[in-house]
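protien #1 (seq + structre)
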Amino acid sequence: MVPLLLVLLLALILFGAGFALKALWWIAVIVLIVWLLGFVVRSTGSGGRRSRWYRW
């Protein structure tokens, strides 16, 4: 009975980790798109000046 519970617990942990990693990938993609859009909008709307929209 204990090995069966350990296998089920391991499967649950791996499923949770997989879901969390997939969610983190989606968050990373969304942040990248927002960063690229901000870069493009700032570079086209700055009136010819070269300026950075981020602080670093």
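ok now protien #2
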Amino acid sequence: MTLSNKKANRGDHIDRISDLPCNVIDGILKHLTIHELVCTSLLSRKWRYVWNTVSQLVFCEDFFSRFEDLDDPGPEINRTITDVLFQHNGPIYKFTLDIPLESNFLISTEYLNKWILFLSRRGIKKLLLFNYGTLSDKVPSNVFSCQELTHFWFCGFNLSVHPNFCGLKSLLVLYLLNNTYEFGAIETLLSGCPLLKELTIEILQDIKSICLEKAKNLIELRLMVNHERVSGLIKSLPKIQRLTLESYVSGDKTFYADIISPSQLISLKYMKLEGVNLAERGELLYIVRVLKSASNLVELVIQSYSDNCEQEPYQLEELGCNSCCFSQLQTVNINVGSDNFKHAMSLMRFILANSSSLKTLAFKVHFGDKLDPVALLSISRDLLLMERASQRARIEFTHRE
């Protein structure tokens, strides 16, 4: 064997992975599943304990699928997650537990509380708990011991907050999805989060009102409504800059006008409305009232796919909407279904005529299974002829089947 061959042969046994910089190794490990992560201990002696220093752990569908063949997977799942946590050596900054929908993977409340207590002592900053199978479970009480928590997502629980709750003083982002709420629980929780900047709430039940007065630093709110009784839902809204409203209530009428009064939106810079019905007089007027109240609004996004649009579109002049000036509005994005485009055109005509700083109006129509060439030609012609208060305004019209 030649000298060069000997060198090449020795090179085949070099552990190049272990010689990578620590930050590169950490980046690789973060993208592995729990099973793959633990299996790295078999690579070599150097890697035997590398897995248990990773700063984020994710238990999701891939993890749970390995227990599908067991008659009663709960105890084995509880034991496995406990073993992984208690063998971990170092800080855990992010922890995700995502129990799959329609599964029999029941997590013991006792174990869940134990895990979160453990995480609270390891500097947990981002905690994601998705419990789709057991909606009646209460949020684990030890969550409120995680004083370094900055991001908290929880789904599928019943939220109750102990009267002695001392707050989550570092929390910046909070997601409340698919939960039920005891009376006053949301306000009590928010009152203990003085730094909170971003809040997402999904409403599934009859809640009289939510007072956000104490969320002084809140700048972004996303509200998803799946319940009909929402009159006066949001009270004392702080000076938020970004607002997203989504309504999934069945029937012809949505309730945006009842959720948040336009008078509370004076500092708004971005607004997105999903599920709005532009054929409803009240919904159309609500958008106009928001535009008039939110004098700092820069971007407006509207998604409207209602198929109950047999009536002729309202003309804004008929509704008492006199000329005004939206001096800060620069971007408008409107997506509609094929049965709704005439109502959107009426709104766009009003916006174009009153937005002196407008740069882009993007209009997308979803025609479904049948593309209508006549409608396309009519829309293109009408858009070109619309009066524009801004000489820089550019209209981008797109469509898809």
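Residues 6-11 have pLDDT under 50 and may be disordered.
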